[in-house]
Amino acid sequence: MPRHVILGVGAGISAYKSCELLRRLTESGCDVRVIPTSDALRFVGEATWAALSGRSATPDLWADVHDVPHVNLGKWADLVFIAPATADLLARAAAGRGDDLLTATLLMARCPVVFAPAMHTEMWEHPATQANVTLLRDRGVLVLEPATGRLTGPDTGAGRLPEPAELAEVAFRVLDRGTDGLRLDLLGRRVVVSAGGTREELDPVRFLGNWSSGMQGYALARTAVARGADVTLVSANVALDDPAGAKVIRVVSAIQLREAMVSSCAGADAVVMAAAVADFRPAVRNKSKIKKTGTGPEPIRLTENPDVLRELSTRRGHRGQIVVGFGAETEDLLGNGRAKLARKGCDLLVVNQVGSGLAFGTSENEALVLASDGSVTHVPRSRKEALADVVWDLVAARFS
Ligand code: CTP
Question: Is the minimum distance from the CB of 309 to ligand 1 under 6 angstroms?
Fold first, then answer.
């Protein structure tokens, strides 16, 4: 059964990015019906939406009245995804207006609804827009934070539409949750996730690093966004697009990662340390490139890095904050995992086996999630997003 998606398009310049979003949704097997606003057609014409979706794409509430389109479309949809959502569209949705096909359909829809706002920073930060966003979120609508970066002109700031591939990921995550997609169980929760692998510089051209791709941490960020959380992602050397809706802080070394985590974690409800943090760094960073001397290589002296997970577990940034760690092991997952959980002092430890095609650089993972109360949850080999959802289920259970 194809999944039915309504793609609402507001009158923003980034409407062109929604053509790519539409493409990704249809290529993944979704049946998509595009409903642009009439002004959105000034940016991308009806013919483009109709040709890419294989369906009519009128903004007109009064077209095909005999079919009562807003009623039928509202009942047909498994997901309504609006990208870009302009300040005006957010205001009309918040006010419950139904003066075009898109807003009337929104009033009919009982499925999950996602807004991806895009506008100038001033419009996004305006109290009127923020009040509308709060109202929509309180009603169970998922309103994504816009990305920060280049806007229409030469200016930069918060208000950019996230990349289409990442918007599609949000749509898939919400669709995968089925009717649970309506339950934003992390709404109002602030979570911090670390991802990737730290690099410890030897000299201006070399570093000690590890194979972490950041995929598990990014999956955690994406799934938390889809469940309504306010997500900060501390990303160490990851070559992936920023997850839509997450605030991304980039770091390189373990020391930088620690600083970013300690300052982001104050007041956070949950912290997940998915990053592979180097245990050691070179004791000395050479200011210039280390040269061959002809007498063989000099040994590299190492010094220990701070254990960020242990520090965050011991000095919680907030009463009741839930701390989750990861442990990569090559053998005796349960034994080594339990010892690591106790040593780190966290609430949950996700233990995964490294090697045999699992964990590093793959889209799948298999793990045991050990809890400080002694419970063990086995997550069979599955997409990293599925493991991420189990982690958030266990975190959400601890909140309540
Ligand atoms: N970690 C950390 N700071 C470090 C090393 C690790 O915060 N300096 C965190 C990782 O982010 C992960 C957890 O600790 O959540 C476990 O990492 P792992 O490398 O498996 O544990 P180690 O303490 O290094 O134990 P060992 O290498 O002895 O297995």
Answer: yes
Q: Which entry of 72, 210, 286, 305 is annotated as an active-site residue?
A: 210
Candidate CATH numbers 2.60.40.3500, 3.40.50.1950, 3.90.1150.10, 3.40.30.10; the one for domain 4-182 = 3.40.50.1950
Cβ atoms 149, 225 nearer than 8 A = no
pLDDT at 356: 62
Ligand 1 centroid – CA 349 distance (Å): 11
Each residue's pLDDT tens digit, 125-181:
999 999 999 999 999 999 999 999 888 888 899 999 999 999 999 999 999 998 888
Query: What is the Cα–Cα distance from 254 to 313, expressed in whole angstroms?
Result: 17
Task: Copy the structure tokens of residue 134.
Answer: 């709060």
Beta strand extents in 153-300 (DSSP E only): 156-160, 190-196, 200-203, 206-208, 230-236, 247-251, 270-273, 280-282
pLDDT at 360: 64
**pTM of full prediction above 0.90:** yes
Look at residue 359 in the predicted model and tell me its pLDDT: 55
Which listed CATH number (3.40.50.10190, 3.40.50.620, 3.40.50.10300, 3.90.25.10) goes with 190-399?
A: 3.40.50.10300
349 lines ligand 1 (CB under 6 A): no
